Amino acid sequence: MPRANQRPRLVDVAEHAAVSLATASRALAGREGVSAEVADRIRQIAHELGYVANPYARTLASGASSTVGLIVHQVDDPYFSEIAAGVIQLAAEQGLLVQICQSGRDPDYELQQLRHLIAQRVGIVLISGSGYDDPRVEAAARAELAAFQDHGGRAAAIGRHALGIDAVLPDNEAGGVALAQHLMDLGHRRIAVAAGSAGLTTVADRLAGVSSALRQRGRSPADLVVVHSDFTRGGGRAATEQILNEHPDTTAIIALNDAMAMGVLSTLRSRGVPVPARMSVVGFDDVSVAADLAPSLTTIRLPMTEMGRTALTLALKPRATRPRRRPTGHLLVVRDSTGPAPKT
Amino acid sequence: MPRANQRPRLVDVAEHAAVSLATASRALAGREGVSAEVADRIRQIAHELGYVANPYARTLASGASSTVGLIVHQVDDPYFSEIAAGVIQLAAEQGLLVQICQSGRDPDYELQQLRHLIAQRVGIVLISGSGYDDPRVEAAARAELAAFQDHGGRAAAIGRHALGIDAVLPDNEAGGVALAQHLMDLGHRRIAVAAGSAGLTTVADRLAGVSSALRQRGRSPADLVVVHSDFTRGGGRAATEQILNEHPDTTAIIALNDAMAMGVLSTLRSRGVPVPARMSVVGFDDVSVAADLAPSLTTIRLPMTEMGRTALTLALKPRATRPRRRPTGHLLVVRDSTGPAPKT
DNA sequence: CTAGGGTACGTAAGCGCTTACGTAAGCGCT
DNA sequence: AGCGCTTACGTAAGCGCTTACGTACCCTAG
């Protein structure tokens, strides 16, 4: 008999069906050892009663949590919110719950969040955002994740490697190459890079691509102006100020993500520098607003939402002997923020 | 003795401290009935062992879940991601976990998500986004939330009323008034509204503000062109096409949120309509990209992140006899997308 | 000196599930 | 008939906590 005004429990279902607790549990879990008719009756009754298993009791008893913890740098950064959207979509389809944490781009805080998530006994950890150059932090995260997986947890990374877990990885270097080639094709010779924090592997990878493209065309990467700031609009603005002041002959700016590119565009506009007439600008990621900026942004498209889904898909599969790596496609999307280098 | 390679349990702490389970539990919960020295020793040992309570066991035993469920329309819509950022921030400070769900702006699916969250025994439900005009759906949600609160759950809404729960509410109508007045002050007489879905209370409220401002100035709201679409960039684009085609004499467009405003600006640009020279555009919300658009967007600022925090704060307080309502400030932010009405 | 009342702690009964193990019935086989 | 095997189910022991209740002790008042 369900208690007055309380959610029904498994015993209530079992009593209604006149079976034992164990049989009810088996039937609802779809495990075998229950005849088809009895199983159907139990499911039917559970449905009528509006029975939904208490996940706390279930997890405590079985030891297998069905919630996924997602770590992002900032939820209100479009790059991450699109990833989160993908994860949440697929999780909803699978009946999983997503717990989300922000690391605020701080490696130590991120580590703390990771530990917290694991201590909260989530079943799956998904970690997004760039890796850090700091070997201490990376090793600690790696160790934490290894222990977590050894206890039966599953983990996957989005856009970061070197964590010893499955990962979905965009080809940041190839993207950098594509951007630099595009600008060189347009005749640009004085190219500056508005880069995120120097300690991020994503920055290093994208930058490496740009440099290698220059080298391929017989140009010295040493000529490249690189200004480090951070992966935000504010960072893009700061970097642009510096580029404009210290390297006034620059004709193209490569922002290493779209957030920075937005800051770059905004500063150029307020400084009265026409884009792309006097300055070409490119970004990276193709967040959904990129197409609606003025001018619309030439950038590298990454399938963020799909990356989120893929990461969860990987984590849902049984662990492989060695970490899997799923590359993601990328695509140069040419829009209105790039044009031929101005004649001087 | 902690089991090899396993997380320590409360018994492990208790054994190390040579006290009973109950005492250890009391000490760590900071409840009384434990002498100061013993409590300190227990806390010390727990810390050394890296003990973190198993939330599943805790919740099962105490019946009080410490996870908060957040329902948004879309996480990758900046309005919602900024709210989510606020909620997640405060939750992290309070040691709470946030489970996030997307309703996809579908009232029925939203209701389903709400039920799911409650069935998952979250302790707090936060529901954001506009209410719906559909009384059936609203009543169902209201009933669900009432039952949830009667069982000890806490709930709060962000930007929607009529749910019988605490709410933080921007003054949508006053915002609409401010926008319309601003445009009339600039001499605009042919104003069109790019509105979200007709079934949303937010749309109705903001629209009511616009109409009432017209009335205050002795103008007939009947003259107002209102095009319904949806609260997305695509919706803004569609609405703009329609306005341009059917009402070519329009000199100002009020988009009822910033996402739509972005679509409006993008369409005007591709149609070659200069903003604000031939058309003024305003939005609503002041999402963080609004300042970086070209032209930068005149809009009503809502403190989304703070709204998220406030909602959680409300939910953390004990339930009041009647639902509380926290108004939020709003502010007309004038930027470059509005200017004097063109002389004809 | 004892009754009464705190204080500090221990004991044990759950919370609502899962699951290892036990058991009874039915089957085919020798 | 007796054996073993499978199938379908029940019994009960936890999972790791919280908390009502019990108990030993000390302090004070009468």
TrEMBL record, chains A, B:
<dbReference type="Pfam" id="PF13377">
    <property type="entry name" value="Peripla_BP_3"/>
</dbReference>
<feature type="region of interest" description="Disordered">
    <location>
        <begin position="319"/>
        <end position="344"/>
    </location>
</feature>
<keyword id="KW-0238">DNA-binding</keyword>
<dbReference type="InterPro" id="IPR000843">
    <property type="entry name" value="HTH_LacI"/>
</dbReference>
<protein>
    <submittedName>
        <fullName>LacI family transcriptional regulator</fullName>
    </submittedName>
</protein>
<dbReference type="InterPro" id="IPR046335">
    <property type="entry name" value="LacI/GalR-like_sensor"/>
</dbReference>
<dbReference type="GO" id="GO:0000976">
    <property type="term" value="F:transcription cis-regulatory region binding"/>
</dbReference>
<keyword id="KW-0805">Transcription regulation</keyword>
<dbReference type="InterPro" id="IPR010982">
    <property type="entry name" value="Lambda_DNA-bd_dom_sf"/>
</dbReference>
<dbReference type="InterPro" id="IPR028082">
    <property type="entry name" value="Peripla_BP_I"/>
</dbReference>
<dbReference type="Pfam" id="PF00356">
    <property type="entry name" value="LacI"/>
</dbReference>
<feature type="compositionally biased region" description="Basic residues">
    <location>
        <begin position="319"/>
        <end position="328"/>
    </location>
</feature>
<keyword id="KW-0804">Transcription</keyword>
<dbReference type="GO" id="GO:0003700">
    <property type="term" value="F:DNA-binding transcription factor activity"/>
</dbReference>
<feature type="domain" description="HTH lacI-type">
    <location>
        <begin position="8"/>
        <end position="62"/>
    </location>
</feature>
